[in-house]
Amino acid sequence: MNDHPESFPPGGDEPEPVPFEDIVKGLEGLGADVEREETEAQQRSAGEQAERGGQEQPEASAQQGAGGAEAGANPLAGLLGALGLGGAAGGDMGESLSKFAAGLGQQMPGFDPQMLMMMMGRIQSLMNSGEGPVNWALARDVARTVSASQPDPTPTSGELGPIEDAVRLAEHWLDEATALPAGTTGALAWSRAEWIEKTLPVWKQLVEPVAERMTGAMSGLLPEAAAGAAAPITGIVRQMGGSLFGHQVGTALAQLATEVLGSSDIGLPLGPDGKAVLLPANVTAFSAGLEIPATEVRLYLAMREVAYHRLFAHVPWLKAHVLGAVEAYARGITVDQSRIEELMRNAQSPEGLADLQSVFEEGITFTAPDNPQQRAALARLETILALTEGWVDAVVNAAAAPNLPHAAALRETLRRRRASGGPAEQTFSALVGLEMRPRRLRDASRLWASLGDARGIDGRDDLWAHPDLLPTAEDLDDPDGFVHRDEIDMSGLADMFNEDENEKKSGEEEKGGE
Q: CA within 20 to 30 Å of 405's CA: 14, 193, 299, 418, which one?
């Protein structure tokens, strides 16, 4: 190996970019040189240890084992350690990268080792200790940093008190509108930063299926030689993908935190069980242009929040059903591979390093292919979101209409908000690949209202006993037909039962006459 300055190309014209496949071949050649040098070094070491009686062998073995363990914890260090560059043994990473770049420069004339050092140094700085398809530590840091760029006061006790009063009154009113019992035991007032921090556990369940698609796509772009002969490279790429997606999630959550009003804006409670949540700063901003008393707005939002808690607290299968629909939809999402290919192809040039930063800022985009499987998955997700949101809309309207003068106006405002999504929600769907919007909200709400009129509150809410009892996407096309069709079926069964009873009585009378 050559770790001297003369192995670096002279200054002047910038070398032509080297194809990624050639980089892999260079790594293989570098690895062969390293392996040969390691064999020779081991032989020399064995001879020296034999002369000294082998007393230092246990210590050397222990050091080697420790290095292997550390390499397993850090793919970049593992790659350097596998190539004999000291990274796995806890040595200086900068020195290891320098040796790595110099050796690769010798293997591949025209390749700029300085660019490789810059690239891998950037990758190392981006890859914190993250496990799984998303670097959640990075996501949290990015979200909190972006959120801190705007004023985000901590809610005071004076703001929490009115929220608690609103929640208690909302639960009382909803008792008259639904058979499902109360699902909250208290209320919380959150800042935007608290919303980010407290909702992360549910976001993990929602976005990791999509993140798996992206990291898999990045790993799939590696040539077979890289995947088979240089496994640490695959680890680097996957960890880099986790950091990239973590950055996107953090950015999206920070923007979404500027618009959310509570913990259930996306269609399922994101906060702790049994706690209704409102964000006073966002509620104030939302109320500013409505020309409706702030007390009334807060009450209406509290009713929506506690209605979601009732539904998800007393329909135990619902949350898993929603998450399953998200996962099924995520399996069909495709990643903008051209963007990833461009990133990996150009990463060895100064322009490529700048592009690496732009990818972290702009994100990788996602698309859903138009095929029968994906259309079915999307219909399933949109249907369950529409049914949950439609139930909340219908129940809250039934409870609010007699008590709040502006209930109809607030209902329409929030319907439009949920159906279209604000700018931050649109950004979130582009960066994370999910659209948690109930496009069939109005149809679903009309269906639940019709069911309440036809079967009463208990009969309507009994449909949540099992997912197979719920209306389908086709039923949302004709909400009234779903209600009346079931009524016809039930009356037909009653007629059949009456006919059987009449025939039985006639037979008994004939026998008695004989």
A: 418
